[in-house]
Amino acid sequence: MSTPQSPTPSPATPHAPAPRSALDGRPTSGEPASSYTSPIPVARAGLGQALASEWTKIRSLRSTLWTLGLLVLLIVGVGLMTLGVVVAAGQDLEGESPLGLGFFGLLLGSMCLITLGVLTTASEYGTGMIRTTVTACPNRRRVLAAKSIVFFLVAFLVTLVSATLIGVVQVAGLSGQGSGTPSAEEWLRGTVGVSLYMALLGLLSLTVGSIVRHSAGAITIMIGAVLAPLVLALFMFAESLSDVREALFEYSIPNQLAVFYANSLSPSGPSGWDPLWIMLGATAVAQVLALVLLEKRDV
Fold first, then answer.
1. Using CA atoms, how far apart are residues 183 and 34, in angstroms rounded to an integer?
2. Is 160 helix (H, G, I), strand (E, B) or coil?
3. DSSP label of 189
4. How far apart are CA 98 and CA 80, in angstroms?
5. Hey, CA dihedral for 275, 277, 278, 283, is it positive or negative?
6. Sequence-distant (≥ 6) Cβ neighbours of residue 36 within 8 angstroms
7. Helix-helix angle 47-60:140-173, to 10 degrees
8. Alpha helix locations (H) across 174-273?
9. What pLDDT, in 10s, does the model give residues 157-183?
10. CA separation for the pair 191, 164 (Å, rounded)
């Protein structure tokens, strides 16, 4: 007679681990969801973060290097060419300030700042980058303020260094041809004043780019605003249009630039620092309009 055998316990079957997502390690099914904490610190975007973001964007864009490099080349290169022509002519300047020779390079360089200003805002609408920008910083007024501050400082500093450099070279190069010695006021208006005006012109272009949201359209509008009044005034021969012609001459942007060098096209109109206040007022009005439209429009 055989002895009944007691049942031996079967070895425990190991359980396979529950499948988890390859991306974040969270369970995909069959396991209770646990709260997830991102290792990336999350903080509300303030003006400092917005400024840092806009500075990163503007210095990493290839268009910034091209437009600012061309700006410096035009101010310095055209200034040196003008200096060479005057020296080769050997004429007595009869006490005229040599700083006025920098006008030609600055007038051409204004096109570079107009282009860069427009691209700073309008290009984001073309690429869709504006959605990422507004998602990271939902306060649209803060976004426009950060763009404006960063662009204005960059444009002002680059123009100031270029205008001062060519001014020093021109004064030194024409010292033996009867040129006058610029006063402190003339130096201030011919370097700091004209640089502030150029930076505000670029800031106005940035604002127009935010309003129009189209790069080509905004650049066309700004170039038309710079050149159209002067071109129209040149062909207004009728006597009945003399007042309009004179006003277009006086308040055209090229004439306002020339006022900083005391070389106005007209004996009346803006003088001294007046062009700076005119451009400041126009830019402020455009910024208010851009802010209103930013709040009303979708991105």
1. 74
2. helix
3. I
4. 12
5. positive
6. 24, 26
7. 50
8. 184-188, 194-212, 215-234, 242-251, 253-259
9. 999 999 999 999 999 888 877 788 889
10. 6
In terms of Cβ atoms closer than 10 Å to its own Cβ (0-12, 13-18, 19+), residue 238 is exposed
For 172, other C-beta atoms within 10 Å of its C-beta total: 11
The pair of structure tokens assigned to 258 is: 């020339």
Length of the chain measured in residues: 299
Rounded Cα gap, residues 43 and 49, in angstroms: 10
* Backbone CA torsion sign across 291, 295, 297, 299: positive
pTM reported for the whole predicted model: 0.83
Q: Closest by alpha carbon to 294, among 220, 209, 204?
A: 209
- Look up residue 297 and give its two tokens: 């429009």
Asked if pLDDT for residue 17 goes beyond 60, the answer is no
What is the token pair recorded at 65?
């290097």
The residue among 200, 194, 199, 201 whose CA lies nearest residue 167 is 194
What residue spans of 38-139 are helical by DSSP H?
47-60, 62-89, 103-127, 129-136
Dihedral sign, Cα of residue 175, residue 180, residue 185, residue 188: negative
Sign of CA dihedral 275, 280, 281, 282: positive
d(CA 143, CA 206): 13
